[in-house]
Amino acid sequence: MSTPIPQPPGLPVLGNIFDIDPSNTWWSLKTLAEKYGEIFKIKVLGHQIVFIASAALAEEICDEKRFRKYVGGPIVEIRYSVHDSLFVAYEHEESWGIHHRIVAPHLSPESTAGHFDEILLCTDELIANWKTHGATKFQPLKDLNNLNLEATTLSLFGKKLGVIGAAEEHPMIQAMEDATSEAMKRPNRPKLLNWLVYGGKFKKATKVMRSFGAEIVKYRHEHSTGRKDLLSALMNGTDPETGKKLTDEQVIDEIVTMPIGSSTAPCALTSLIMFLLENPEVVTRGREELGRVVGKDQLHHDHLDRLEYIKGVVRETLRLSQAAPGFNIEPIPKTNGDKSPVLLQGGKYQVAHNQPMIIVLAGVNRDPEVFDEPHKFKPERMIGENFERLPAGVKKWFGNGKRACIGKHWAWEFLEVVTAKLIKEIDFEVVDSNYVLKQDGWFNVRPIDFYVKAKARA
Ligand code: HEM
């Protein structure tokens, strides 16, 4: 006999519509995970979704022999902007393999190492800017968004935007926010309303993002270069398996997809600053390691591997920030058409043969079965043997299997560089000592209304 999957009470017909705040879905899911634990379900307008919030269940449904990425809901909606690009491609689309094989070599650890100097250059610009901030309070997210877009565009597409330290965010950032927020909200609105009232906003955001992509292509045509970067692969590369190339539209699809994926990193870094302010001993230990390994040298790529404590800080940031808040999974359909229920935990729970499930990392990453004091920021648990001993289910911040984050090596290097530089060179100051964490976001989550002051390390 299986255990029923808990569900909040809800209303007839409308179901659990009031259990999810459409303007802050992930916060609602975090709250439900805290209340219901390892698994729960909700039903909205006849659609049922199961949510997974424990490490053991996450590990089980990350078994690629039984489950795969579910392309549904907001992921399908954002296809309006990026068509069949990597993040949104259906399992059956040939394009995923073609794009993957063209893109992956240019986001490998070796390629990413080749971009170290560009990432460092952008980070140094931000650090120099923050050193002059002094008594002025500011929202780190805005500057980190600009830094991330600058570093992504420079290293992957060879174009310097010049937005670091700018008073305003680059228009691409607002467009990504508008498009992803719209993609999240559309599945729960009537289609007519989406088209009549909100279609314009989606169209405008898409236009801005695709113009950004087109500008990058134009810039490359006008500035011939020997760079063998991601842009060059997108524009000229051939899939080694099929011999196919990307169309002009598909090149823009991927140029737009990369900053959308990458925009998760500044969310994690904003959380990191909050964690550092709450845990001054982490700054002390980080500085001790940086002093020992880097000393008075400029940071270079060879240092990264030796910064064990900084790696622990980055992993703990990924765990607790839940910057990418979750991902979708579904059972792989049986070839013989068998529609019998899928058993989880050896039959403890049963779900339908085609049940969409969402892994809620706010639950999984703070599973009390795995972590003592799961809410505390403790980089030591993410280092060496402690990290190796952790179950695979709590290491899914970059997703799973073949559909895991293709930008994870780039993201890791960026996070490590920025973390090391911030800890080594900047003193942060709390602006509001009563600040209580509140997050929002769409395809990623970040602390909101979070201000700090920054100055050069004393
Ligand atoms: C802290 C930084 C990042 C985190 C936590 C993160 C997390 C994730 C996660 C969880 C997925 C799986 C999504 C799913 O299953 O639906 C994913 C996929 C993806 N990410 Fe990232 N990401 C980060 C940075 C980046 C960067 C820097 C890029 C590009 C340069 C990127 C590009 C992508 C793409 C294209 C996919 C889709 C891959 C596919 O389905 O083949 N991400 N990411």
Automatic annotation (TrEMBL):
Residues the entry annotates as binding heme: C405
Any Pfam family: p450
Record's keyword terms, sorted: Electron transport, FAD, Flavoprotein, FMN, Heme, Iron, Metal-binding, Monooxygenase, NADP, Oxidoreductase, Transport
Top-level taxon of the source organism: Eukaryota
Cofactor names: FMN; heme; FAD
Keyword Cytoplasm (UniProt): no
GO function term, MF aspect, one: heme binding
Keyword Cytoplasm annotated: no
SUPFAM superfamilies: Cytochrome P450
Similarity comment: In the N-terminal section; belongs to the cytochrome P450 family.
Record-given protein name: Cytochrome P450-like protein
Record organism: Podospora australis
